[in-house]
Fold:
Amino acid sequence: MSRYRPPRSAGTPLITPEGEARLRAELHELWNVRRPKVTQSVSEAAAQGDRSENAEYTYGKKMLREIDSRVRFLRKRLENLKVISERPADPNKVYFGAWVTLEDDEGEQASYRIVGPDEFDIKLNQISIDAPLARAMVGKPLDAEITVQTPTGEKRWYIVEIDYP
Structure:
């Protein structure tokens, strides 16, 4: 059995200005704050002598590899992202960056913001543009009916409000 896993698709290369700022802040934190601290602790651990049984040295090297891997990913990803900051020409339809309020058949409402795959956070009601619900909403006007296949069956919502921050 092989350990090979095909690379994940990067998703749609769109991001909001806030999402880009968060990724750049993470990159800055990793490269300018955390990496120098870990490098310092690794060099101190290496100075203690035998590295083969030095847990601090081994752990520090592992942390450096993880930090460097994330830094490489962020740099490459930030190069390829397109920041969407302008409002769409037709603000009465759902597009990237919109806050959309949906209402189901029982009258329950939920609001979601459509964001890029690098910044979605369901706790903040931000869903990826690659999510089935977002795909169903994109391009739809106010009062449109959308249907999405969920694990519990088909679910229907109505778009009751569209807002662009």
User: Anything to note?
Assistant: The radius of gyration is 22 Å. The chain is about 40% helix and 20% strand. Residues 17-46 form the longest helix (30 residues).
